[in-house]
Each structure stands twice: as C-alpha cells, then as structure tokens.
Amino acid sequence: MRLVLLAGRVMLESGANASRIEETLMRLALSCGVDSIDVFCTLTGLFFTVVKNDEVLTRVLSVRQHGTDLGRIAAVYDLSRAVESRAVDCHAAIDQMKAMVLHESMIGYPPWLKLACSGVSSGAFAVLLGGGVYDFIPATLAGLFAQMVYSRLCRRSPEFVAIFFAVIMGTMWALVADRLFLGTLRYITVGVVMPLVPGLALTNAVRDLIFGDLISGLSRGAEAVLSASAIAGGVYTVLALFKMGLFI
Amino acid sequence: MSGLESANELTPLLAPLMCFLGAYTIAVSYNVPKRALLYCGLLGNVAWYVEIYCSDLHLTEIASNFLGALAVALLAESLSRMLQLPVMCLAAPGVIPLVPGFKAYSALLLYVSEIYDQANQKLLEALLVAAAISAALATANSLVLLLPGVKRRWQNPQSPVDDRVLTAGDMSALTEEVLDRVRQPGASTPPSGSG
After folding, report:
1. Which of A60, A141, A237, B153 has its CA 20 to 30 A from that of B104?
2. By residue range, what is the domain housing residue B29?
3. A58 has a chain B CB within 8 A of its CB
4. Other C-beta atoms within 10 Å of A242: how many?
5. Residue B123 included in any domain
C-alpha cells in the first residue's frame, strides 16, 4: 500500500504518462500479494483502491509539483520489474522508494551538470536552427542564465511565472549579446527557449488522449499550452520593449 | 545580419554535430540514464536526417517532420525494449531537433510588428509541425501494439468489483444499512420537531 503510494508520487512528479503509471502501480501491487488493484490517474492526483482478503483500502494522493525527470521514471520502472521477479522484497522496495522521494537528485546527474547541459543544448540549437558558430557561446551563456532563473523560481512560484521570467531574462541576454555584436538575436533567443519548450508534456498529452486517459490527457494538454504561452509571452514582452526603443 | 549566409555554408559539416550535441545534452538535463545517452544523441541525428531527406524529396514540411519523428519513435520503441527503459527516455530527446522553435519565434516577431496575417500563418505552421511530431510518437506506439506478442496494457487479473468484494449477501446488508440510516433521521426528526 505504502509502496504503491510512494511509487505513484514519484512517477507523477517526474512527468510519466497515465498508462505507464497505472501499469507500474498494478505490477507493484500485484507482486506484493494484493488480490486486486484499481488505479485512476489524473495529472494532479491519483486515486487507487487495493483489495486484499476481502478488505478494501482506498487512498487519494495529490501531487502539486511537476518536473521532467526521466531517470526517476526509469528507476521506478526498474524497481517494479525487480519486485515482480522477486529480486527485491516489498520492504526493501519501500525503503528504496522512500529514499527516492526524499532525495530528489539521488538518481542520475548532479544538478550543476544538468544545468550546464541545458545551457550547452541552447547553444547547439542556436547553431542548428540557422545561427553561425559564433552564436554558440552567447547562446550557451544565455541558456544557462535562463535555466538558473527557472530553477530558482519554480520552487516558490507557479511554473507559468517561472518560465515567463526565465525567458525574459534569457532574451534580454540575447539582446545584449546582439547589441555587442557577439551573436544574432533571433538564433540566440530560439536556443534559449528550446530547453524550456514543453515537448514532453505535449507528447504525453497526445499519448494519454489516444490511449483513453482523457482527463489526464486534457490536463496535460492545458499544461503544455500554458507553458508554451508563458514562453511566447516572455519573448513577446522583450521584443515589444525592443521595438519601442527602450534598448538601443 | 550575416547569420544566414555563413550558416548555410557550414550546415553540412555542423548540423550533425550540433544535432548530436543538442539531443545528448537535453537528454542529460532530462536525467536520462547513462546507458541511453548515446542513443538519444544518435536518434537526434536520425530525426534531422530523415527530415532533411524528406524535404529534399519535396514533401511538405508537416509530412517530413511527421516521418522524421516516426522514424525516431519506431527506433526508440525497439531500443527501449533492448535497454529495458521507458520509451519516452529515448523518444523525447530524439525528436527535440525537430521542434519548430524558429517558426514560433518568427511568428512572434511578426505579431510584434503587427503583421497579423503572416504571423497567423507562421503560428499555424508551427502548431501543425508540433502536432505532427506528437502524432508520430503516438502512431509509433500504436503500431508497435499491433504487433503480435505485445501486450496492450497490463490487465488487472480480477476487477475489484467481483463477488469476492461484494457478494449478493453483502449487497443486501449494505442496502439494509443505508435504508436504516435513511429511516432513522426520518423517524427521529418528527418527534423532535413536534416536541
């Protein structure tokens, strides 16, 4: 029961899609000796009922934080396979899952490496989408800066606001770089925006909708549209200020 | 700004490198496990090449993006079974080079300049490309499920509402209980109201 709860929380927080969450939770529960389990999964919460020896237990789980962390999804998935094949017993699995909830960055790479990598990806996309080689370094720096702003802000403010300000900051840097003849505004901006694009949310939304998890799909779609409009709003603001001649 | 000309000269050399680098680093920032990182980078390259090849064949932009993403998604499905990872670990970084970022940006630029007809056109193009990419991922997933020997979804062996949970006797006991509760306030309130 607790195992299922924890696993559900980790998976929802890391942005797994509904059918995968349901499948994993069912696997976990059934291999822990439960008679049957039913899971209903939405983007912000999860309900499940477990039946064992004519005893029915229901839990509601609400999740407010979202992020993209494919490593944690993969780790939960691996754990569910291990439990299923009896390589790990239930209590050990609970301990592992608890550790996963408590230490967010336990799995995978240290935060600074992730930050640096999203900066470098900004640089790579600035070049890829038409910029010259000289756009690489300014775009990397701007992307790094935007990601730092984003990761600071998204702890204490809604994601919309965090993305909005991150994009504003990144685009400002792009503007400065452009004025100093270090790069081209458009390519740097596109590069900065790229790691913040809600690509995973969008594909998960479509996948959920197609596989019949309509509520989850619709709310994920709304989330993706919201993040995309935050990005658009941020870029638009800076460009509009630029047009007004505030930065010359 | 001389960005475009110089970029066009360098593209054949630089594009594969940048594709690989972009997909690889995005994969790291998505926290993809180490064993899959190299494949993510290569899938980014595949996406880019298929897209370029299709647009050289004069396919429309949407079709070429769809095919690029489809190629990536099918490869990701087979690789994910090989590496025992969720498909998303491989597919999400793989399709990143196809995301129509520049189109969306130029749409915004046109909106700022108040050229709305062209802006709407650009925005629609960007949205359609994004829709094509995600449709391709979903298509690949459904295509794989059509193969024999692949389970559609983990099926619950017993649905919770079977006679283990609620027998006919339970049912009648439950209705009795509910009826009792309904009756009791009705039986108790009139005296209190009158008294």
Report:
1. A141
2. 9-99+136-146
3. no
4. 18
5. no
How many whole angstroms separate alpha carbon A127 and alpha carbon B160?
A: 55
Provide ipTM, 2 decimals.
0.80
The total number of structural domains that make up chain B: 1
Domain membership of residue B55 (yes or no) is yes
| Residue A200: closest CA among B36, B31, B171 | B31
Q: pTM of the predicted model, to two decimals? A: 0.77
What angle do the packed helices A18-31 and A199-210 form, to 10 degrees? 70
Question: Which of A19, A72, A128 to mutate against chain B (most B CBs within 10 Å)?
Answer: A128
Hey, what are A194's tokens? Answer: 């790229």
Chain B contact set for A71 (CB, 8 A): 30-33
Q: Is residue B122 part of a domain?
A: no
**Interchain CB distance below 8 Å, A210 and B142:** yes
pLDDT tens per residue across all 248 residues of chain A: 666 777 777 777 666 777 778 888 888 777 777 778 888 888 888 888 888 777 787 878 777 777 777 877 888 888 888 877 777 777 777 777 777 766 665 666 777 888 888 888 888 888 888 777 788 888 888 889 898 888 888 778 888 889 999 999 988 888 888 888 777 788 888 888 888 888 788 888 888 888 888 888 898 889 888 998 999 999 988 888 887 765 54
Q: How far is B50 from chain A (nearest CA, A)?
A: 15
Cβ–Cβ contact B99 with A under 8 A? yes
Domains in chain A: boundaries: 2-106, 111-243
DSSP label at B155? P
